[in-house]
Amino acid sequence: MSQPKSEQYESSKPLVKVKNLVKHFPKRGGVFNQVIAKVHAVNDVSFEIRKGETLGVVGESGCGKSTLGKAIIRLHDPTSGRVIFDGVDITHLSRSRLRPIRRRMQMIFQDPNSSLNPRMTVEATLREVIRLHKIVSESEMRSYIDGLLTKVGLRVDDRGKYPHEFSGGQKQRIGIARALAVKPEFIIADEPVSALDVSIQAQVLNLLMDLKDELKLTLLFVSHDLKVIDHFCDRMLVMYLGNVVEEMPCQDIHATAKHPYTKALLASNPITDPDQRGELVVLEGEVPSPYDPPAGCPFVTRCPIATDRCKTENPPLEDRAGNHRVACWEVKE
Amino acid sequence: MNRIRNFFRTREMRKLLRDRLTIFAMIAIGAYLFTGIAIMCGAITAETCDQVVGPNKLNGFYREELPERRYDIATTKFLQAVQTALGQEDPQAALEQVQLGRVRVADKSPEELQTIVDQIIGLRDELNQSENLDEDPAMMPKLAEMEAKVEQLKKPLTGMNGFLHNASLWLGTDAQGRSIFFRGLYSIKIALQIGLVTATFSVLLGAFLGAAAGYLGGWVDSVIVWIYTTFSSIPNLVLLVVIAYAFTDFDLQKRVPAFMSSWVEGIDIKNSLLPVYIAFGATFWIGTCRVIRGETMKLKEMEYIHAARTAGFSSFHILLRHIIPNTAHLMLINFSLLLIGAIKSEVILSFLGLGVKGQPSWGIMIRDAGNNGDVVTGFFWEIGTATVLMFGLVLAFNILSDALQDAFDPKHV
């Protein structure tokens, strides 16, 4: 595995590049089963993830953040745009040519109750993927699996158990072990803790953090929880209705957030320190239907600072000072 | 061992075994299966079922026949025995024959036999003087004596043979004098054989097509859905009859190219069960296919399927290892339901003369029993045997599949 010599990810080259990624889900109907509408799940999204970096994706339910993750790993075929992994455009690779790439990128899923086959033991689940990618020989299999289980904090005797014998947090650990089994470089974590109890959330997050440092993983961390993102990530993307509205480093996000939607998101989070509490921005109305997004800025229907221009023109994601990109006509500096 | 114990401790198994009725049904099914397997191992053959074991339409359950009929039966038996023993050129050789079909000649010297024959003829002449034996109680001892003498002419059956001969008469005989008991039991094998073969085949075919349609979607889904909607738009029984009828005059020898005809020599398709299998196999997979397709569409969105896809497994591997095992409970329920359907349809087809040929079947028994309006005159034991045996099997499986459905239904506590 090639890891950057430098620990500073800023200087290293990007591992994943996403260029103008679009994913529409057609809705079919009528007599001839023609496309009658499209869900604009991901709309023209571009970003880069450098080696060793952790990028957070945050947004409310239905904003397309999970779809983005699934489109990168080709669980969904993108409608247009490109995903470049370590210099290889994987958007149109055939299944057989995609397989070696898939070993290098893995996914951790949201719901631990449905992410494990109920009819396979932990060992069978792990062995299956290890065998497919020929990670270790059959003779080393047992010790390798034991090592994986220990690494994610499970007991070695758990090997022969079925998923229903575990708690949610333990199942999520098995899911993590499955992702790590093939020695990946890049992991997409699709809301890995949102289905867990808060006390378990912290354990799993700490486990992920330790593993990330130990194995020098690159992570795309999808979550709707700003606190988790802030705690865990180096940078974050804020998504709204399939669009990236802000891209910013995760340092003092309360002070640096510029987009009105990000500010509203931050304000909706309870803050323990009274000195840091800012004004409370309560968003009016509902998220527009993804079948029929607004013509201009996606946030225009709920934006407190919207102007006439916002209704007709979608603001591009423009570079601002300090590794910061914002898509808003009204945010100038 | 541990696995088996764990299997019985699963929630589904505990729910299944909680109901006493289900246990009874399972015991009944076990008994049927045991009988079927015993017959398959040769306990009763099709030839046994075709043998004449006694007079026509003999009453079952050892119920008394009317004196007139007793006289007729005794006379017929007597004449048969005399024919066999004395009608031959060499009486000594005739006596040495231990058994001739079911008509046996006692191991006695010709002189002894002659004495018995003379006595019987004397008794017969006396009985003949009576106008109507049914209304002549005075003649009863003589009739009994004649029956006993006739029995003396025969070599008594001992051991297993004696038991089997007795058993064959338990439920009486049909219009050709064949054992109803054996024919009814043999039909269990036919019913189970057809049920198991068609249910296994249909469930596997339906599961594979349904899983493929549900998982792959697109044109595969369209084609499979088109096929099963087309098939299910034709009334099921009509389709069965048409397919079975198409095979009534099927001669494989004439259908294959000349050079292959020696290969298929001796294969008699129209008298085998193959037409029935084909007719059932073509129609029975539809229900399973539809259910499994729906379940697959649900499972497809489960995250472990996504995980398998991100790992890079082929669709075939995912179908075989992840989807189909997780539809196993539906396959089990469908198997049980299809088995009942196949058994009932087999009886209907056989009744119509399109199903089983050359072997006993409940359908054939029911048809034979009703052929000449005999049922109306009190000949109930053939149709009764077939119906009761079929009723028991179908009811037991119905209870079992009901219990299976309850056990595997997550909404049912």
Total E-strand runs of chain B = 0
Radius of gyration of chain A: 21 Å
Q: Please estimate the helix content of chain B.
A: 55-70%
If helices are DSSP runs of H or I spanning 4 or more residues, what is the number of helices of chain B? 19
Query: Which fold name is given in CATH as the topology of the largest domain in chain B?
Result: MetI-like fold
How many domains make up the coordinates of chain B?
A: 2
Layout of strands and helices, then pairs:
The complex is a heterodimer of chains A (333) and B (413).
Chain A: E1 14-29, E2 34-50, E3 54-58, H1 65-72, E4 80-85, E5 88-89, H2 95-104, E6 105-108, H3 122-132, H4 138-151, H5 168-180, E7 186-190, H6 198-215, E8 218-223, H7 226-232, E9 235-240, E10 243-249, H8 253-256, H9 260-268, H10 308-312, E11 318-320, E12 324-326
Parallel strand pairs in A: 3-8, 3-9, 6-7, 7-8
Antiparallel strand pairs in A: 1-2, 1-4, 4-5, 9-10, 10-12, 11-12
Chain B: H1 2-9, H2 11-18, H3 20-40, H4 46-50, H5 67-86, H6 91-96, H7 110-128, H8 140-153, H9 159-168, H10 180-216, H11 218-233, H12 236-246, H13 252-255, H14 274-300, H15 303-311, H16 315-323, H17 328-351, H18 362-370, H19 381-408
